[in-house]
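#dry-run=false #mode=assembly
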Amino acid sequence: MVASTLDFCGHVRREWQFAPRRGPLIMMLVGIGGVVFTHQLLPLLPERAIGFMRAGFALEDMAAVLALNDLMAVYFPTFFVGLAGSLGVVLLAREEHRLELLLAKPVRAAALVAARATPVLGWTAAVGVVSSAAMAAAIASDSEAGSSVTPAGTFGSGLFLTAVVVVLLAALQLVFVKIRDPFAGLLVACAAWFGTSMPTAVLLYRPDAFARHPLALSLVMPNLLWHDATMAWLGPLSLLIALPLAVALVLAAGAWLERSDAL
Amino acid sequence: MTRLQWLDYRAALGERKTYVAAALMIYAVLAVPLLLAEPPPHVREVIAAWLADEDPFALFMFVWIDLVMNKVIAFVPVILASGVVLRERDTRVLGLLAAKPLTLGRYFVIRTVSACAVMLTLYAVTQVPAVAWFHGQIAGFRAGTFLAAMGLHACAAVFATAFAATVMVAVGRRGAGALVAWMLLGVMVGLALVGFYQPDWYALTLANPLTLGTLAMGNLQQLSPAVLLPPMLALLAWTAVTIAAGARLVRKMEV
Amino acid sequence: MSGSAILVEALGKRFGAMQAVDGVSFSVEPGEIFGFMGHNGAGKTTTLRMLLGLTRPTGGRAAVLGHDVVAATLEVRRVCGYLPASYALPPDMTPREFLQYVAAMFAIPRATARARGEALLRRFGLEAVADRKLRGFSTGMTQKVGLAQALINEPRVLLLDEPTSGLDPLGRHELLEHLRALAQQQGVTVMFSSHILSDVETLCRRVAAMHHARLIACGEIAALKREHGATTMDELYLELVRRHAS
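#status=ok
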């Protein structure tokens, strides 16, 4: 009897069933904890420190300062929980000699890579959504801090960052299928993460650089808070677009693995 | 054992990830003078107030440590140390090595010390040449003070490497271990300078080993052995305790 | 029996509810190539790992060259060479570097280590690839480097777990010749664990057979064959298993 082959959705369902859940669930708590910690710690800092952030990032009030720090509490755990899972899709599996076992089964490499990456990206998005919701709730409960940002806007900002993370991680799979050393993969991923944070650092120390390139301001994190009303609808929309785009990217990564001699 | 330590260090030094880490750090050395070419007045004022030092060199040191090197010690140590023992186990190399006359604890110590030595080497090959580059780029740059401050910071980097290795074996799985090590180092880095922003908490923040690595910033005008040695010794003690804890934890590992 | 290279007495290992090795006793004489046969999961690997102190026995005792495997684990490892059934080599090292690395684990002086390393590279025909990264080595080449690393300390006892599985006929023949030469010329005691019975017959005079965690026979192959009316190793093993089952 010949074994029947699964369609792509079947592979995704199987991988989803066996995907680790504990890490993402813990990171959801970490995201929530990060938001709570920010809201407890920042009001205790002297006015000079808060003023530094307000002036440096052109933020109107304390609410925006809190929201900016909250965004880091969304971005950091979301990216790194996703990265830890993403490494297992191809890089660690190849190093531990599991990939060839899996690819010997009746499944195309593109489908296998995408099916293994999809639960990782799904859980990453879930961590981002939960952390963003915590951030919105914290902003809502801290109404005295100011009105320059709203719960809906900050939730949208968090979702937008989550969408960026999901697409970035999916794009990294294109690199991972070509790398043999998981630690080199880690370094590349860290460099990519830093790359996305660099414009914000430049804004703090070289705001004059943006005077010549005003469009570059769209790359800085406070930009999400400057357009609070827009983010309220753009954030959810971007996450909706990011998910299929990410699946397309991991399918492309798998197709590239199939064509290359990467085993 | 010295020869094994030397061979292990050389093997670790020759790995691709070491070169990539060096490239990232060299990029930072080249990029920071551009970032600091025209700091806005509010940045100059606030940092001068935090460090009680109006010298532009103090501003440079703050940015170099806070923005660059503190980020480096949150990430690079995890990459250098997270393969210690766990990678050998997962790739089945440990099956061979564990049969040699060396306990797993001792092997962990050797691998971790190598990772720490690689971290120190990365500091040496980036910070020392950086002196020549910064000298022509940063107003009021003081080479001796810079190297002394970074010497202390290197001790924090060594601690971070040992810490990452120990966290990894405590967690027991590479992906999850790297994630936990990043998180913990991220929190330590995030809180490292809080004592400068809020002087009331200064004494409390000294419990954070990564704060100890930044203490030179508060004394740039009179940096002396009396300022540097206590935190250096404290960091070495932290490192030794951390490695010992890792060696103890690794004994429970199933080969 | 005090002169035995390997002495095993009622050795046992239990993993939770599963008895992996149950009251196994045998001895191996110095300079002997001793076959250790049994089906997969019979307990051969666990026994070898207990001999090296990699797994702690839950019953009985064992000694290698007079060193107790629990109390003097490092002494045992110092005089042993070991090739596990499943292993990998560090991909970023070359064979030459790896041999020097392993030599340093035994604290072998540098000049001696270098000389031994070069001799082993020559012996196993690895000179041409001595400076190539181990990543991508074939199974046969990997096994040669694996055996070379097991010999770097000039062990007096060699414990080999399924060393011929995965090798082509030529590679198998070469490996068996190397082992025979080691025993005959250098007096190395070899414990050769395998389920490839023809290899066991080619190499060994005496064998022990494991089945479901227990030792079901131990003695000279010729005598065991006579006793059980078997003409081939396969027949002998099947007969032993059948008798044990009944």
